[in-house]
Amino acid sequence: MSLAAGTRLGPYEILAPIGAGGMGEVYRARDSKLDRDVAIKILPEALAHDPERLARFEREAKVLASLNHPNIAAIYGVEDRALVMELVEGENLKGPLPLETALNYAKQIADALETAHEKGIVHRDLKPANIKITPQGVVKVLDFGLAAVTQASADYVGDPSVSPTMTISPTRAGMILGTAAYMSPEQARGKPVDRRADIWAFGVVLYEMLTGGQAFNGETTTDILAAVVKTEPDLTLVPVKVRPLLRRCLEKDSKKRLRDISGVELLLEEPLAQTQSAGKHLVSRTQIIASALSVLAGVGLGAVAFRHTQEAVPRVVRLSLATPEKANFDVRGSIPQISPDGQRVVFAPPIEGRADLWVRDLDSLNLRMLPGASGASYPFWSPDSQWVGFFTENKLKKINVTGGPPVVLCDVVQGRGGTWSQDGLIVYASCQKGLFRVSAAGGTPTLIHASGVDTPRHPWFLPDSRHFLYSDTGAFVRMDNIDSRPETQNSKEILAVDSNAVYVPPLGSSPGYLLFVRERTLMAQPFDAVKIRLVGDPVSIAEHVALVSPPVAGQFSASQNGTLVYASQTAQDKQLTWFDREGRSKGSIGMPAGTLSAVISPDGSTIAADQLNPDGNSRDVWLHDLTRGTTSRLTFIGNPAGLPLFPVWSPDGSQIVFNGNHNQPYVKSATGAGPERMLQYSRFVIYDWSHDGRWLITGHQNTNARAAIWVISQFGDQTPVAYLNGEYNEGDAKLSPNSHLLAYSSDESKRREIFVQTFPEHGGKWQISTSGGDYPVWSRDGRELYYVDADRKVMAVEVRGDGKNFTPGLPKTLFELPALASSTWARMPGSSSKSPRSRAPLTYCSPS
């Protein structure tokens, strides 16, 4: 669709055409509101008339608009099927260029890519046609992410140098030579891509800047793609200084390729052998050194040397370390802790249901488990880095990292973090009880701050060994001291943020810093530990930091010499997928997203999923219409990214209840009409809504800090009534279709197993699982019960009878969940006969 000068799109007046490409026509336009010129890209007809693709494009455009960087052409918004962008004056990138000029441009491109990659955005179509140089010599990278979200028509027959990556077609041979030459081998083979495809394209662009020719040539698209896959570029044509960098960027095996664009500058400054040396060599520099470790279940453990520097923009260099196989860092007690001397990291991630203490020496490639610390959680270090304090179910213990058995210090009711002072005192948080102090040698603990409306968590000593920071469930970081008494309650508010906090002392002339997370971004703010106050503005250190809840806590800690360890999480790569009973994939649902749970409507037509919003920092309930194949956002609560909502359908499918911040339940019409309505049951997690509409099955923490199951009648008196409220943790309860039996998980046998009891009266009880169990789900007809065992196998149990005559069969393995699948594998009731279009009844989040 061509637009004439004078045409108006909202507040924008078309001035003149700029150009056309496979992703649309581009015009210069005038913004009448802000009195500036902009670029307007009119979307292709195929996209503009496809409501689903257009809606997806608008969602992605919002994410792309979050890219704020001087080397990225800004996206201002979407207006009537058009993308409004920064108007960049200048010329497209061309070679050959002098070495220093090329390297200057390359560093600017790398900075732009790094910012995008940290937000989880991959360009996918980096090439000279998408890079402009302004008259001032500033690089502007265009069209971030648009190749993936527009997928322009294969009918485009214009300039091949501006043709988008996604238009490859065997019937269009020769039409996309410009793009094919910059594809990574995995793109050329049609495989999924990640940031390493951008790193490949960066190398190809740099090669062209230096030589003036393409690294991979051919007469047709097929010839070029064959060269990409099989031939090596001639690096004798480029200066010796850049050859190590190009070799790393142009590795055909993506596993061997440079993993992070932030390593570009280091590879240009040092020989390759030095850049691969140990992390200790790199830590000696006055810079920030970040490392993203192996990704397990969407979460990776990372180590960062946080070096204060007077540079305006410190450099970031990422390394790689290993974590225990099958470790789950998406758990509150598994927050990694680095020793005060910065030499070791300790963590307690559950592995197949069992939590042990693991230590990683940063100058070693090996992990080691500390014997005798089974069931450990919330580890913390002694000031001399020789001991680790930790909590078991009802004890506070310590263990020497060089050997020896654990030592019991005192009894604790569900510890929630500790800190160890130079004076030999430990301050720890006890769930629902408060803050206590106890000698590091052991003894009787003393209460110094009682829990009230908000419960303290994650204490951290300041250098004077008297004052300490802690977070509370009211979304504040506070300060208190060891001489406090419950009756005084004289804590001081330091920062309004829903996060734990860590203090890093001054290094050289730099100030001390307070570290905390805000919307999954790790922040550092100057902090005066003497006057106990913030003294400057915060700066971001790392993005996509893993969160645990409730309450929200970031997976990070810091040493006294400025080394930081954190767990990173990129949840956008989880895909809802249908599987049959043999574990064969039967198709996907919607687009990949940071999904935590999903549940199908009673009529089988719609899935309500707890997903990340496009901003990547918050989550809401999204609906997937299985008949129309559309996706829409239902709620607008904007829970923090680490807080699950766990939607539950009403029996007639007209409403959805879900959990907001701090486990405050809400209800909303499934049509999306009207606002969310807050329910009166504060801090109750909704597990299920009975098929007859009478009961809400909920979870609530009891006075013994145990997870308990409560029921709320929807008729008459709606006061919550305890159903299981004892000495064990019991939850994730699901009613059978006839509402006569309740399945739930419990740790009464020292590990989580699935049980069934009669409902609403207690008349019979049966253990269903035999090798660990979680996440029970009934079939629609009530004749089968599904769950996940400790080995991540999906199990099925045939059941017969009802009430006291209920009889469970033996558990049978259906299939094993993929390693990266979400543990919330299914909240999908149903059997294949009643599922839409006879699909398989089981759905879970798997890697995309």
How would you portray this structure in words?
The chain has 848 residues and is mainly β. It has four domains: 8-275, Orthogonal Bundle (Transferase(Phosphotransferase), domain 1), CATH 1.10.510.10; 290-479 and 489-569, YVTN repeat-like/Quinoprotein amine dehydrogenase (Methylamine Dehydrogenase, Chain H, 7 Propeller), CATH 2.130.10.10; 571-679, Neuraminidase (6 Propeller), CATH 2.120.10; 687-816, Neuraminidase (6 Propeller), CATH 2.120.10. It contains twelve helices and 65 strands. The strands form 16 sheets. It has a six-stranded antiparallel sheet, with helices on one face. Strands 10, 11, 12, 13, 39 and 40 form a six-stranded mixed sheet that branches. Residues 148-178, 270-320 and 822-848 have low confidence and may be disordered.
Number of helices: 12
Kindly, what is the distance between the CA atoms of the first and last residues, rounded to a whole number of angstroms? 35 Å
Helix content: 10-25%
User: What is the SS-derived class?
Assistant: mainly beta
Instruction: Look up the CATH topology of the largest domain.
Output: Methylamine Dehydrogenase, Chain H
Low-confidence stretches: 148-178, 270-320, 822-848
CATH superfamily of the largest domain: YVTN repeat-like/Quinoprotein amine dehydrogenase
Average of the residue pLDDT scores: 79
Give the overall shape, derived from the CA principal axes.
globular
Quick one: biggest sheet? 6 strands, antiparallel
- Strands ordered across the widest β-sheet: 1-2-3-4-6-5
What Rg do the Cα atoms give? 28 Å
How many domains, as an integer? 4
CATH class of the largest domain: Mainly Beta
Strand coverage percent: 35-45%
CATH architecture of the largest domain: 7 Propeller
Compute the number of strand runs: 65
Oligomer: single chain
